[in-house]
Design brief:
The protein is α+β, with helices and mostly antiparallel strands. The protein has helices at residues 5-11, 25-35, 55-75, 78-86, 95-98, 114-131, 144-150, 180-183, 193-198; strands spanning 47-52, 101-108, 135-136, 157-166. The protein has a 4-stranded antiparallel beta sheet, sandwiched between helices. Helix 2 (25-35) crosses helix 6 and helix 3 (55-75) packs antiparallel against helix 7. 27% of the residues are buried. It binds flavin mononucleotide (FMN). The site of flavin mononucleotide (FMN) has 9 residues, from loops.
Length: 199
Amino acid sequence: MRKTIKELARERRSIRKFKKEEFELNIVLDCIEVAKEAPSGSNAQPWHFVIIEDDELKKKIRETCEKGEKKFYANVKGKLAEWLKNKKLNWQKPFLIEAPYIIAVFSHKKSPYSRESVWIAIGYLILAIEEKGLASLTYTPPNRGEVAKLLNCPEDYRLEALIPVGYANEDKVKEPRKILDEIVAINSFHNLIYNLIKD
Ligand SMILES: Cc1cc2nc3c(=O)[nH]c(=O)nc-3n(C[C@H](O)[C@H](O)[C@H](O)COP(=O)(O)O)c2cc1C
């Protein structure tokens, strides 16, 4: 039986280790078919997708990202530094060469609400990937401009994210989510449903 959208959303998790196992490009195209149905400011559809499957290019992308990550990790402080350490994340990004495909997602800078629109499309995309039984990561390298250049991105577009796609090669516990009671209010920001239930 097909999974519901709620099940897919609950089961999806960010995967940072991928099997090299290959699959058809058509599967990725099918996921992008879903992403392109997203709403967008004045229906400008300000997105552009580049599918990277070339191993040499993936290597270059990894090198470029890791150069940016080294700088980022050398300077990161406070709560974010602590969170990254707890998650055992570091400057190394091997998933960029492991995953059979990376989808680079771009936004058109001058379209209305372009970033908001593209990020809605990314939301659709990662759930579509989940529905295929594949895994993904929403990766935002610190030096996105440099990566964009490798992909011949024109001036009027900006790279939003790199989404490696493949079969998961790690078992991951779902990162906890806040419960509805904490994040939903009725009629007024502070009127949390939690308080209403208690009364
Ligand atoms: C806008 C955005 C940027 C992100 N950037 C990165 C990133 O650069 N590197 C990374 O490893 N994960 C990145 N992530 C993944 C988050 O760390 C992850 O979604 C979060 O920890 C929750 O885990 P889950 O996706 O497994 O539920 C990003 C996610 C989003 C939505």
